[in-house]
Amino acid sequence: MKMILAIIQNADRDNLTSALRKAKFGHTRLNTTGGFLRQGNTTLVIGVEDAEVETVLRLIESTCHEREVLHRPGSGALHADAYVEPVKILVGGATVFVLTMDQFRKL
Fold first, then answer.
1. CB 41 within 8 A of CB 32
2. Architecture of domain 2-100
3. What is the Cα 55 distance to its own chain's centre?
């Protein structure tokens, strides 16, 4: 049995959770915050049999997309009068961890 931790952008959350429900994969949703952009994201915890891992990974890949956003580096509090040119960065997709579980119990 495997535990999949999928960290995704909030913009992709509804599409992925709908796809997981439709495919009958239970999941737990956690609201989390990324360290780089300090923006909200979603972490999904999904328990699956070994043979189902690739199916879930395909669902994640098909519903979680990269997108460009403008990001203003640095903190405005340090140099409030300095203009910092925003830069385009790529966000989204998914960061996925697949972990082996020793046990899974519903109590």
1. yes
2. 2-Layer Sandwich (3.30)
3. 17
Structure token pair of residue 61: 């890949």
Structural domain boundaries of the chain? 2-100
* pLDDT top residue among 102 and 77: 102
Separation CA 93–CA 61 (nearest Å): 7
**pLDDT number for residue 78:** 58
d(CA 6, CA 39): 16
- Residue 6 predicted with pLDDT over 70: yes
Q: How far is 42 from 84, CA to CA, in rounded Å?
A: 29
| Strand partners for 87 | 71
- pTM here is 0.80
